[in-house]
Structure formats: C-alpha cells, structure tokens
Task: structure prediction
Amino acid sequence: MAKKLAVQPSLHKVIMVGSGGVGKSALTLQFMYDEFVEDYEPTKADSYRKKILLDGEDVQIDILDTAGQEDYAAIRDNYFRSGEGFLCIFSITEDESFQATQEFREQILRVKNDENIPFLLVGNKCDLEDKRKVSLQEANDRAKQWGVPYVETSAKTREHVDKVFYDLMREIRARKMDENKTNNGRGKDKSKKKKHCCLFMCC
Amino acid sequence: MLFVVSKVYKMEFSKEPNFDMLTAKDFTPEKYVKKLSQNYVGGSELQNLRRKIKSLSEETSSNLKKNVYENYVQFIETAKEISHLESEMYQLSYLLSEQKSLLSALSTTSILEDMQPINIDRDNKLNEKDFEEENKQKLAAILEKVEGCKELLEVPGRTFLYEGDLLEIDPTENTSLKTVHVYLFTDGFMITNRNSNSRGLMKYVYEIMYDLSSLAVVNVRDLGNVKHAFKLLIFPDTRVFQCSSNSNKKEWLDKFDQAKKTRLAQEQQKRESITEKSPSRSASIESPTYNPFEEDMGTIHPEWFLDIPEELDVCVAQRHFEEALSLLQKAKDYINQTASSSEKHDHVLIDIQRKVEQRQNSLTEVLMKELEVNPDKSLQGGLRAARRAVRLLNQLGRETQSCNLFLKLCSSMLRTQCKRVKREGSTTTYIRHLSSVVFTNMCHMSDEFLRAFPDSPACASAYVVWASNELLQFTTHLIKQVFMPQTSLATITECIILVRTQCERLYGYGIDLCYQLDGALRSSLMKALRDARDKLIDSIKLRALDDKWIPMNLHSKSSLGRCIQEHAQMGLNLESYVSGDTWLQLTASTLSFTKMFLSLLNDCMKLKTTELMYTIDETLYNVFEAQIRHNENALRTELNQEQRTFLTKNAEFLLVNLIEVAQKKYKENVGYECQTLQKLRKEYVALQKGVSPTSRSTKTKYSSEFI
Result:
C-alpha cells in the first residue's frame, strides 16, 4: 500500500448517501463535470474518479453515488464499508429526507464502527428557499448533536458543491494522517471481540 | 573292466570331445564309448581323454550353476515386478470405483435438481420444463468446461443467467490485470480464469463464487481512460471489470439487476410459504418513501441477546437448568418486546428466536430424560429428586409431558417398592405390609403431585386415572394372594378390612378409591361367602350325624361359669338353661352352632357393602336353616316326650335368643333387621311349640326362591 501511495496520488473514497431524489447524482455530476442534469432517473450505484488539486497536492477522489433504494442490507453494508468519508444528503424541501438521515447515520456508524468517521450533513436544493421545509436551525442542531459540519448546497447553482467535497476530503486526509501515526484502534477492538467470542465457544 | 574296453577302442577315436557332439540329437553314450575304445589305445591317452571329459563335465556343471543363479535372480526380479504391478492394479481399481461413485452422486444430484422449482421470472418466456431442461444442460456444460466447480450443482434452484469474457482492472492503478471468464447465476457470480495448461475440455479454472445477496455492483461512470467498466464491492475486496463495449456493460448491469430481482422474489416466496410474517421489503420497493435502513433498525441488539444461544448451550451442558430457564425467559421477553415495538422484519431477531426455540426444545428434552424411567438409574432420590425437573418443565409449559413422566416414575417406584415386600408369615401379615407400602407410597405421591401440579385440572384427572390403574393392579395382586380355597373367611375379612382402612387414608388428598376397591373385590367376596356358607353347612351336617340330643355336661362349676360368661359376652343369657351344678339344657351342637353363626355374622358385618347385602342375607339364612332343619328332623323322629321338650327348648333358643342377638347386631351395622332371618323365624315358629310342621314338604325351599 505504501509503495503504491508513493507512485500514485492518494485516493480518497467518498460515498454519497441519502433518500431517493434528494440530488446525490446531481451534486456528483455538478462536481465532476460542471453540469446540472434536470431529468431524474433513479441511480443504482455509480462510481466516478477524478484527479484534483487539494491544497496544492495531487489527489484522486473516488465518488460512489449510491442508490436511494437498495434491497439487500448486506449489499448496502458493502457500499458503506468501501467508503472513507460520507456525504449525507437531504433535500431542504422534504422533511422525510431529513428524518431519514438519522437512520443513514446510524447505519454508517454501525458498519464502520467508528464515531469519528469523516461525515458531512448536506442540505441540498437551497436554491428552492420558498419551498423550504427543514429549517436551518433544525439541521444545525442535528449536525451539532452528531458533531459533524452542516452545509447547504445547490446542485443547480453550484453553490457550495466544491466546498462539501473538498471539506470532506480534507477530513479524510487528516484522518489518514492520524491513523498513520497511531495504530488503528479498531483492529485491536475487533480482535478483542473475537477472542471474547472464542472464549464463549470454548466453554 | 571299462578301463580295458576303452583301451581297446582307444585308437579309433580321433575327435576331441566337445559340447556339440555331446548335445547332438543322435548321441548315445554306449555308441560313443564304443567308438572311443575302438580308436584309443594305451592307458595314458584314455586317461587324457577322461580328464578332458571330466573338465568338460565340470565346466558344464559350473555353467549350469551360473545359469540357475542367473535365472533365479531374474525370477526374483520378475516376482517383484509382478507384485508391484499388482499393487498398481489395486490402486487403479480403487480410483475407478471412486470415479464411479462420484459419477453416480453427480447423476443423483442432477436428478434432484430437476425437481427444484425454478426461476419464476422467466416462465413467461419459456415453458417451465423446457427452461429447466435447458438450464440443466447449461450447468452441465459449465461443469465440463470449468475445473474445480463441482459444488456448482449442489445448490438447488440455481439457474444460469449470463456468461462472458471480461478484463479485470486493478482498482487503484487502472491497469489491466487479466482476462477472466465469468458466469452469472440466479444466486451468485462465478469468476474463472483461463486454464494455462489446458488439455481438452477444461478451458477454465474456478476462482471464486460470490453470493449475490452481498455483492454490491457499481456502475463505473468515470475512471480516467478506462471505459465500459463496472465494479464489484465485496468487503474487503473491490474488483473492477472492463466490458468490451458499452452495450455489453449495459447487458451485464441489466442481468445483475434481473438476478437480484429474481432472488428477491424467490426469497419472498419462500418466506411467504413458511407463513412467517412477511417483511415490509417487497411493499417498500414500490413506495417512494422507502427507507433502506428501516429493517436494520432492530439489528442493534444488546450483546447478551446475541450470545444467548451459546449461553443456553453452556447452561444446559453444565446442568444449570434454572439459569437456562431464566435466560430463556429473558430472551423471550426481549423478543416479544422488540417484536411488538417494531413491526419490521429483523433477520437477527428471527434467527435468534429460532435458535432460542431450538435450545428450549433441547432443554425440554434433557429435562424429560431426567424424568424418564431408566432401569440403570437409581430411584434412590425418590420423588424429591424429580421435583426440580418437574418444576422446570412446568415452567416451560410442558405440564402434560412432565405429568405423564412423573406418573410413570411413580408407577415404577411403586413397583420396585412392592417387589421388596417378601411373602413371609401369614397372609394377613403380608397383606398388612403390602397394603401399607402401597398406600403409604400413594399418599406420598399424591402429596408430591399436589405440590408439583397445584392448579392443573388436566393433570389432576391424569392423576386420578393413574391412581385408579395402580389400585387395579394392586387388587389383582391382592385377589391372587388372598382369595384361595384354603383361606378362611375370617382371614379374608381381616385382610379386606386392612386394605380398606389403608385406602381411606387417601381421603385426605381428596381421592376416594374405596368404591373402586369394593367393586374390584365384589365378585371374589361373593364367591368367598358362598364357599364359607357351603363349608359351614357341611360341618353342620357332619355334627348333626352324631348329635345325641343330650344336655351338655360341663363337668365343673367353673367351666360352666366360664361358658355362661362367654355367651353373655355374645349377648346370650344362658342362666335359665342351667340345671344341676354342671349341666346346661342345650346340646353341644346348638352351642357350637351359636358360636359359629355369630362369628360368621361378625365377618359378614365387617365385609358388608350395599352390593354384598344380598349374598350376606342369603348366606346367613342358608346356614341358619341348615341347623334348624337338623332340629326339625330330630323332632320328627323323636317320640319321647321328655326329649321333645328338650329339642323344642333348643329350637326355641336358636329361633328366639340367637336370632334376637343376631338381629340386634345386624341392625347395629346395617340399620334395619335382617329380613331373611325374620322370615326364617316365622317359617319355623311352630317348632318352638314342639310341633313339627306338616306342611314342610310343600313349602318351597327359601334359597331356591333367591337363586
């Protein structure tokens, strides 16, 4: 891994999560190709890769645009496991999508088993201020409770689109550097748990 | 002699002896010797020749030896070779038989698979049978082409969907790795590599099979210069594959989608067929507000809950049944609570619930084993040892089973206890001991039973049935032991009374088995009474034969006094019959009958039950009548006035005094006077006046009316 890192620009894996129709693909496409796609077509699971300059450093971003609807829990787990950072999107014009973020958050924490996973709460469609259903206060409160940043974006006007991706990548990068310094605690945790299980088996 | 002959023929021999000559076909030793003796003359020459022949023979024999040795070595080598070949043949035949069994196993698997229901989505395209056949052939073809995928056929219902060549790409460096040949089935995705040393049909080597339900397929829209690619996420692997064209990629993604949908439909169907609560999943696919996480909400269970099946195993293995039970209860409560609070389908919950149910069943089994009657198991602990298992089983809601087992245990214990009672001494002693053992145990068991199953009507009725069965067994045994021809009525009575009093002990537990006991004993008792009657009548007849009709001489005042006292105790006043110092104006026969009749009456009164009254009355009547008849007959033949008066006095004593006493006793026990005795008194009233009834012959015998 280390050898590869030296040759290739480092790769940050970002995952877009959120209910159907909140604009995950629209945000991704805006970020990737600077274009806004008006027609809605449900995504299954798309991945994108782009070389960008992050604070003067060449990096690659790998975006996994997930389906709002996936039938197998195990498959969803596999999506989430592959991610290093998450953009949890909801539409400020739809309260249900905001409520759903709670469950996405819990699922991600369960799969990653990590409270401090790079994570951004994103309220999309902020250009549709007149149709707002989720107040800024509400969203800020939830983000505060989770200890994550909250950003409002518009895929249509490209407002804050780059910001959310770059912010997330900075968090991922910072976290990777942390992990390189101190050994990953999670692995230890896991082995401990396994040992515990084994003990059970023995008796 | 030979020497002389050879000398003679020496001259004619010119040739040197050699092998060719000696081994020639027409060689004969006689001729040769003749020739030699003709040719050679002189001892030295012959000697020379002889030496030569000798050396020849020596050479030959050494050659022979050498040859034999060589042949022997070759023989050993050949034998070795043969045994080697033999083992090789064995190996071959073993391999062949293995191959054969493998083939037959394969053929049965494919036959089984024929019966499996298949992919419903494609039914509209092909009729089911054709499709099944096609699928089977396709799978067989894959089996032939791909090395090491024997388990391909082991999954029932697996259907082939799509195959093709793809180029695998390194997920981080975007460089191509290798060409793979992949197969998509309804339940999985199989990757195979080109077989480098392929000879013949096996073109590919099996690499891996991914389960479709955990395979995340990602459409790679943009990966630099890599086009037409898709990605598979299988934690912790990520694999990228490049298709030949965009349409090819689209085809692949569509097929994956189709496979997943088919799988879902199948699973749903399966779930419905098990009539489990259908998950909300299928409904949510259509609804736009479907939240993919809903069903996973319940999966965050406390750790103790997830470990419960193992914990239960441990507890059962260590025989900590109480602990196991409380764990079970805890788990059930949790399941109920979770199930009611969220209507979602939770796989973990259901899985654990099923496991917990299994553990519960095994716990029940273990407990039932505890209670089972086993000849090897000691019953030392008695019922108290069973308490724990019974209590736990009751708590598990298995009252019926535990009740059954408990009662079986009781039966076997009772039997063991009864076997220990030895038949020693008199019947009465034995019966006393036995009935005491039986009923004490039954009392004890009732006690234990009431403690174990306090409020269960079903168990109570089972207990009553059990008790009645046990009693039946006991009475059968009792009848065999007690009702024998040589047993006297008095002994029988004593035994029966003993058993009855024992049986009454069960009243305290609310079980009245006396009626059943009487019922079971009735016919035997009736027979016993009739036997006693016949015996008494016989003895009366015997006594009548040597009745001299003279007053009884008791020889001494004291014995007279004793006699009077004895009868006074029975309620009979004999004072008026005393004459002289030692004489009683009654016959010995009358007095012994009195004694006998009263003891019979006594026994009868002890045995009396409503059902037996008729037999008792009849017995009393018949016995009494036999004695009276004897009196009557004597009266008829006696002409002496003085004797007649004496006879009448005896008859009067029997008909008045004895019947009075008997009636009194009868009334005391039964509540009314004995009608048959009354009738008897009336019939023979004339006898008291010394008149022998003339109508005697016309009067029908009493007993015949009854019988």
Remarks:
- The beta strands of chain A are 10-17, 45-54, 57-66, 85-91, 119-124, 150-152.
- Chain A is about 45% helix and 20% strand.
